[in-house]
């Protein structure tokens, strides 16, 4: 997911079913600006470097969300990690549901009723759902924190104090006047509480 908060998602299926405890989110760290290929390269490297370092079992198949470009980017990371040829990998391009294999410029088209295609589509769609949910939550948290910074006369130190206590900007927004007052005093608590609760007396 590109934008102001680029993220990626990894889902895991075992025996054709989601293994949700093994799902992972990734904040893109090394890529500046929207670059789908570089982001794919970063995430694949981080994912499988960690599995190797923790001696975790590797998957039988990696399904990349994308066509030739995304697949090539993923393969670069597998090369660096010495994993090319040790794990099967394919890419699925959404427009025509084309299946790409490494080193083959011509995609494979599976029968639309194929159970294999249905599993691959389910994987891809589940990754989209998981990633979109994470992306929306991240943007929402950022928006609320930015809103804290917009409150007149409330400085960074006060915001830091509140976030240390309440753990998230969303909880600050929902806090009672008494809870705020206990942390930052009457005057500043009054300003913040009235800002988020303008109808309260």
UniProtKB/TrEMBL annotation:
Taxonomy, superkingdom: Eukaryota
Residue span(s) of domain UvrC family homology region profile: 1-78
Which is one GO molecular function term here? Answer: excinuclease ABC activity
Read off the Pfam families from this record. Answer: UvrC_RNaseH_dom
Supply the InterPro entries for this chain: RuvA_2-like, UvrABC_protein_C, UvrC_RNase_H_dom, UvrC_RNase_H_dom_sf
PROSITE patterns for the chain: UVRC
**Name the UniProt record assigns to this protein:** UvrC family homology region profile domain-containing protein
């Amino acid at each position: 997911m590109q934008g102001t908060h680029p993220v990626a998602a990894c889902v895991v299926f075992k025996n054709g079913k989601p293994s949700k405890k093994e799902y992972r989110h990734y904040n893109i760290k090394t890529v500046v600006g929207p670059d789908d290929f570089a982001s794919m390269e970063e995430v694949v490297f981080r994912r499988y470097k960690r599995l190797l370092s923790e001696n975790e079992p590797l998957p039988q198949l990696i399904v990349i969300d994308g066509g030739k470009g995304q697949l090539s980017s993923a393969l670069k990371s597998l090369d660096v990690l010495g994993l090319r040829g040790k794990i099967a990998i394919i890419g699925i391009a959404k427009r025509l549901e084309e299946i790409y294999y490494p080193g083959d410029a011509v995609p494979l088209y599976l029968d639309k009723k194929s159970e294999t295609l249905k599993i691959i589509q389910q994987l891809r769609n589940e990754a989209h759902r998981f990633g979109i949910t994470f992306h929306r939550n991240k943007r929402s948290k950022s928006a609320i924190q930015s809103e804290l910074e917009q409150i007149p006369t409330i400085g960074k130190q006060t915001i830091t104090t509140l976030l240390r206590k309440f753990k998230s900007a969303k909880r600050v927004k929902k806090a009672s006047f008494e809870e705020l007052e206990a942390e930052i005093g009457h005057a500043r608590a009054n300003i913040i509480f009235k800002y988020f609760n303008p109808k309260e007396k």
